[in-house]
Write a structure and sequence with these properties.
Blueprint: E1 2-4, H1 11-28, H2 35-44, H3 51-61, H4 66-72, E2 106-108, H5 111-114
Parallel strand pairs: 1-2
Helix pairs in contact: 1-2, 1-3
Length: 118
């Protein structure tokens, strides 16, 4: 993966990362995730995030059990494969899976977003 300096991350992605990390800090401290609490942590870290994004992010967290989301890794994966054959006919052999081309992701130094204090 490529390494990208924090100052070269586009603002949209930076808004998302800062808001997500601030929410994780609040969740870890068992604090309510609100627009005000997110802004407080983001400001303390020396970052600036678009106010509309913070408002929407806070609303999306309301009523969600983030602990459950973090432990479970999000939504469950869909079941794959065909059901077992039940009749006398032999099962058709599945075609070999097609390998998707790998896309190189950029690596971001996460510690630089919030400085050494967090």
């Amino acid at each position: 993966m490529a390494k990208v300096p924090v100052d070269q991350i586009d603002q949209r992605l930076r808004d998302e990362l800062c808001s997500a990390y601030a929410a994780l800090i609040l969740q870890d401290d068992k604090k309510e995730i609100t627009e005000e609490s997110l802004n407080k942590i983001i400001s303390a870290s020396g970052n600036k995030v678009t106010s509309n994004f913070v408002r929407l992010f806070a609303r999306s967290c309301q009523g969600q059990d983030l602990d459950k989301f973090l432990v479970g890794g999000g939504a469950p994966a869909p079941a794959t494969g065909a059901p077992a054959p039940t009749g006398g006919a032999p099962a058709k052999q599945a075609a070999a899976p097609v390998e998707e081309p790998k896309v190189e992701e950029e690596e971001v130094e996460m510690g630089d977003l919030f400085g050494d204090d967090f």
